[in-house]
Write a structure and sequence with these properties.
The chain is mainly alpha-helical and 438 residues long. Helix content is 67%, strand content 1%. The chain has one domain. It contains 21 helices and two strands. Strands 1-2 form a two-stranded antiparallel ribbon. A hairpin with a 2-residue loop joins β1 and β2.
């Protein structure tokens, strides 16, 4: 009797799915989703610069130690690409729902299940880790920093869920006004930055979480409808966005780094600024200028199988990659600070980066394989009202935003932020989200 092998391994499963992909699917959308998230993961791992000296552990970033590395963020800050892809995908799914006579509630409930469901196990994990660490004697400050580091990715989820909630309105605006719906958001982002810098209304800057990311999302609609196709048009967006970005950073108050640098007063990303929008415009133009040759390449089975495999666990990889690296650093501290006593920025430090990234990858694998099933959980058959779904999404996002900024540690029950921790689960319950549902 011949023994069958390799039939149920992840690659074989992905290959079977890849073989069933219809020709009409734009595979470049899936490719960009996978590449953008992988770039974020690699960028975080590359720039992380924890080290130990006689005073203890220091959690720092390479952006603090060597200023030239801040230019690298122009390549690794690719969240705009994910919002571009989101606009394209949401356009297809919303149009499909309308064509099949499905309601907003039916459409939104499925989207929320896929977006909010996978983050709940991560929060549960950090409740146990932070409470357990403090019970074992870890100082609350250290537990707080660890959870803040690990939960950085969920800021994106908090913003993106709200963007998804608004899809019927933003898509209707695109259909009626086309690029005017994008331009109005660009103008709003510029005015918001003016209020932030010139009028010293720093609290107004948080509105750009809506203006900037909704503007990039509108470009996804434009891409779907063929308004950004071809190398000439794509390069025009590159030149326009790049020229404005260079002007803003060279002559304006905007720093070079496209991610926050500890100790730096102004951040291009917290909250997002006009500079982030221009970076997104340039990145989107560049990537869309090479769409046709990339789609031809992705018609081959091997690269397309790799894309299918990565996308099958992409949200899990994104959500858990900093938890994996945080726990790996904690493990190194337990083993006599192995690898943590090298001065960041030295030749030895850079030579060890591939080793550390490999260690982080090994630490991530069990999380990716073990928790990947939560992003494939099914939505419930009972459809809730749109008001209930929207309220649940807002509650969940409020909690996610607070946890992304402050971590899970606080002065409440078990040394945790009980109020902020309750919100994502309350929102999920209200919206009928169950990550355990198959």
């Amino acid at each position: 009797m011949t023994k069958k092998t390799g039939r149920n391994d992840p690659w074989s499963q992905a290959k079977r799915l890849a073989a069933r992909t219809p020709e009409s699917r734009n595979r470049y959308v899936d490719f960009l989703r996978a590449v953008s998230i992988c770039a974020v993961v690699f960028g975080h791992w590359l720039m992380a610069a924890p080290y130990v000296d006689e005073s203890g552990i220091h959690i720092t970033s390479m952006l603090e130690h060597q200023q030239w590395t801040r230019w690298l963020t122009w390549a690794f800050q690719v969240m705009p690409v994910f919002f571009l892809v989101g606009g394209y995908s949401n356009s297809i799914s919303w149009q499909s729902a309308l064509g099949k006579g499905r309601t907003y509630s039916e459409w939104l409930q499925v989207r929320l299940q896929r977006l909010i469901g996978p983050v709940l196990p991560l929060i549960v994990m950090w409740i146990f880790l932070a409470a357990g660490a403090q019970w074992l004697g870890m100082r609350p400050e250290m537990a707080k920093v660890a959870s803040q580091m690990a939960l950085i990715p969920i800021w994106f989820l908090a913003v993106y869920v709200i963007v998804v909630v608004l899809v019927p309105f933003t898509f209707a605006a695109w259909q009626k006004y086309r690029f005017w719906s994008f331009g109005i958001l660009v103008i709003a982002a510029a005015i918001d930055d003016y209020l932030f810098f010139a009028a010293d209304l720093t609290s107004a800057g948080w509105l750009n979480y809506a203006f900037v990311w909704l503007a990039v999302h509108q470009l996804g609609y434009a891409w779907r409808d063929g308004f950004m196709a071809g190398p000439k048009l794509g390069l025009a967006w590159v030149i326009g966005g790049g020229a404005v970005l260079i002007g803003l950073t060279a002559f304006g108050p905007y720093p070079i780094s496209m991610v926050s640098v500890p100790g730096q007063e102004i951040s291009n990303s917290l909250p997002p600024k006009l500079s982030m929008l221009t970076l997104g415009i340039a990145q989107c133009g560049l990537l869309l200028s090479i769409e046709n040759p990339m789609r031809r390449w992705l018609s081959r089975i091997t690269p397309w199988t790799a894309v299918v495999l990565i996308n099958s666990m992409i949200m899990t990889v994104f959500l858990w990659h900093l938890t994996a690296s945080t726990l790996a650093i904690g493990g190194a501290m337990l083993f006599n600070d192995i690898g943590l006593t090298v001065q960041p920025g030295s030749g030895t430090w850079w030579a060890l980066r591939p080793v550390w990234i490999f260690v982080y990858l090994l630490a991530l694998l069990p999380f990716a394989l073990g928790f990947g099933r939560f992003e494939r959980s099914a939505a419930g058959t009972q459809i809730h009202s749109s008001g209930r779904l929207v309220a649940g999404a807002v509650l969940a996002c409020a909690g996610l935003a607070s946890l992304a900024l402050n971590g899970v540690v606080g002065g409440q029950w078990l040394g945790l932020q009980a109020g902020a921790l309750i919100l994502p689960f309350a929102g999920a319950l209200l919206a009928g989200i169950n990550p355990l549902r198959k």
